[in-house]
Amino acid sequence: MSDWLTSLKTETPQEGFELAITLARKGVEYTQPSAAIRKKLRPKYARNADSLTMVSQVIAIHYQTVAAANNYWK
Amino acid sequence: MSDWLTSLKTETPQEGFELAITLARKGVEYTQPSAAIRKKLRPKYARNADSLTMVSQVIAIHYQTVAAANNYWK
Amino acid sequence: MSDWLTSLKTETPQEGFELAITLARKGVEYTQPSAAIRKKLRPKYARNADSLTMVSQVIAIHYQTVAAANNYWK
Amino acid sequence: MSDWLTSLKTETPQEGFELAITLARKGVEYTQPSAAIRKKLRPKYARNADSLTMVSQVIAIHYQTVAAANNYWK
Amino acid sequence: MSDWLTSLKTETPQEGFELAITLARKGVEYTQPSAAIRKKLRPKYARNADSLTMVSQVIAIHYQTVAAANNYWK
Amino acid sequence: MSDWLTSLKTETPQEGFELAITLARKGVEYTQPSAAIRKKLRPKYARNADSLTMVSQVIAIHYQTVAAANNYWK
Prior knowledge:
Oligomer: homohexamer
Helix content of chain A: 55-70%
Number of strands of chain A: 0
Largest sheet of chain A: none
Low-confidence stretches of chain A: none
Radius of gyration of chain A: 14 Å
Mean pLDDT of chain A: 97
Number of helices of chain A: 3
Number of domains of chain A: 1
Shape of chain A: flat
Order of helices and strands of chain A: HHH
Strand content of chain A: under 5%
C-alpha cells in the first residue's frame, strides 16, 4: 500500500476521531484488499445493529491511541 | 459532518460518561449515516441483552479515554 | 438523568469494583431507559454463561478506569 | 457482599493472575448471585472453546489492572 | 497449580509475545483444568477463523501487559 | 518458531500499523501452525463483515502497544 499514515497528530478531537475511523477501516482493508468485496459486504453489516456496534468498538480502541498521541488535545 | 466534538474536557465524571455515550453513537453514525436506518434498528437491539451489553462495552472503552483526558476529575 | 456520578474516588478496591458494576449498568440504562424492559431481559441473560461473561468484561473495562482514578488504592 | 477485596497488591505475578481470575468471577457473581445457577451453567461453557476464550479475555483485562497496580512486580 | 509465572520480564519482544500466549492459555486452563477436555476442544476451534481471531485477541491484550512490564524492550 | 520479532520500533506510524497486523496474524499462527489450514479458512472470513471487524479489532489492540512503544512517533 502507498503512504496513508504519516502522523497520529490531529488538530482537533474530532479529526482524531475521524482518524480512528480510518484506522479501523484500514485494518479491514489490509485483511480484505478487494474494494469490490468490501463494498458488497457493506449493505448487510450497515443494517445490523451488532455489526455496527462492533465497528464502533474498533473505532473506540483506535481513538484511545490517537487521543493519547495527541495528549488528549489539552 | 459538522463540528460535534471540540474538547474531551467535561465538568464532572457523569458528563464525561455522557460524552462517552456520544462517542459510541458517533462511531455508529459515521458507519451508517442514515438516521432512518439507525432508528429502524433500535427496537431490536434495545430489547436484546447481549446487544445492550455490547453497546455498554463501547461506552466503557470511550470512558477510559474521556476519564484520562480529564485526569479522572481529580 | 439526575446526578448519579460525582466522583470516581472510592475508599477501597472493592467499592471501586462495585462502582465499575454501576458504570456497566448505566451504559445499558442510557441505551434502554425502560426499567420494565431491562427487567424482562434479565432472567434470560442471567442464565446464559456467555452473556454473563460479556457483562463481566464490561465491568473489567470500567474497573481499569476506576482503579487508575484511585491510583490503584496504593 | 462481605469484604472480598482489600488490596490489589500481590506477592508475585502468578498471584496477581489468580486475583485477576477472582475479579473475573466476581463480575459474574454480582450479576448472577445464585451459586446454584452458576454451577448449572458451568458444564456447558467449560466445554465450549469460545466460551473459555471469552473468560480468558476477561481475565486478561483484569490482569492489566492488577499488573499496573503492582508496578508489574518489577 | 504449581509455580508457572515468576516474572513478566523477557529478553526480547518475541519472548514477550510467547509469554502472552502462555498467559492466554493459562486463563483457559484455570477455567477448564482438564487437559483431556481442552485437547478435545482443540480440533474444532483451531479450524474456525473467528475462534482463532478471538484467541489472537486475548494474546494481544496480554501482550499489552507484558510489553508495558518490559518498558517495550526499549 | 524462528526469530520474527526483534523490536517494536518502527520508522513511521504506518509501519507500526503493519507491525500490528503481523502481531495479530502471529497470534493466529501460534494457535494454528498449519499454513494449509489457515489458507483454507481465509476465503470464508475474508468475505464476512463481522469476521473482518474482529480481525481489525485485534490489530487495533496491538497498535496501541506498538504506538506506545514508539512514543506515538512524536
